[in-house]
Amino acid sequence: MVALDGARRIGAKILVSGGGRCNVTHWQVTARDYAGSTPPAIRNVLGRFGVAETVEFFRAQGVEFYREADTGKLFPTTDSARTILDALLVAAREAGVRLVHPAAVTAIERAPAGFHLTGPAGVWQAARVVLATGGCSLPKSGSDGLGFRLAAALGHSLARPIVPALVPLVLPGDHWIRSLSGLALPCRFRLVSGAGKVTAESVGSTLCTHTGLSGPATLDISRHWLVSRVRDPDARLVIDWLPAVPAADLESQWFVQRMIMGGQIEPFDFHKTGFSFTILCGILRGHGFDGFRRVKSFGLFKDTSIVNICA
Fold first, then answer.
1. How many domains does the chain have?
2. pLDDT tens series, the chain, 311 aa
3. Domain closes at, from 153, 180, 197
4. How far apart are the first and last CA of the chain?
5. Distances (CA, A) of 216 to 139, 204, 245, 292
6. Residue 175 and residue 253 in one domain
7. Cα separation of 156 and 40, whole Å?
């Protein structure tokens, strides 16, 4: 068996996964966690090599895992993706695999005895070929879309739309969320179709960045959102900044507090019901408010020409 790797750096995509820690799998994996094939086909794969088999495979290479409390992801105890890459390279050598690197394949043609592969590093003949090139997500790692072209040239069809998966979401340059760069908090994302139906949901840690949103919950919803932009242009992505508080409870709390603390029900005075001061300021700026201040208390029935935020 020969493994041809065309990337400039061996295992480049492994080394950047999980923020450099490489979350190999999840403590619990089901067919619902995957897309791109039928549930029965995915169940067959998981049945042959599931979480237990994955953990045991790496344990045989001296790699132990720990479970991240809030996500359930399994990381190597070294917190280093290099540990995973080294284990895979050792296992490949022990299995008798010959690794050729860098060795990009630019064309695959059918031949009488199998396949004819060509590239800058040489020519190969193979009885069977497995394409494992990834998508288009990280060109410098080798995931540059070449695999799609090779598959299509061999007569395979591509399931469209082809979109990135598990990626951060980029927001317009003037979006108020970008002003909260560095803020991390739990959120719930809901993808709502043009017809008003919730079609996908993710809950978990969310990170506001200088370009938009990232973090586990963002990455989990990204594929659904990007597909919907092609198939359902009227779909909306809704963010719940207080996922632990039911919407009805939140609305009633705000109504009562505005009545008591501001002497009114119009939204000029706010109490930070569950919100941090930073996120509430961001929300207000995003809705056109630029004159507000932090106060210790409102006092009863005192109106004001600017927005007060009770600490």
1. 3
2. 999 988 888 988 899 888 899 999 999 998 888 876 788 888 898 899 999 999 999 999 999 999 998 789 999 999 999 999 999 999 999 999 999 988 989 999 999 989 999 999 899 999 999 998 878 877 777 788 889 999 999 999 988 888 888 889 999 998 989 989 999 989 999 999 999 999 999 999 999 999 999 998 999 999 999 999 999 999 999 999 888 877 766 666 666 555 554 444 444 444 445 567 777 777 777 777 766 666 665 554 454 444 554 44
3. 153
4. 65
5. 22, 6, 20, 32
6. no
7. 21
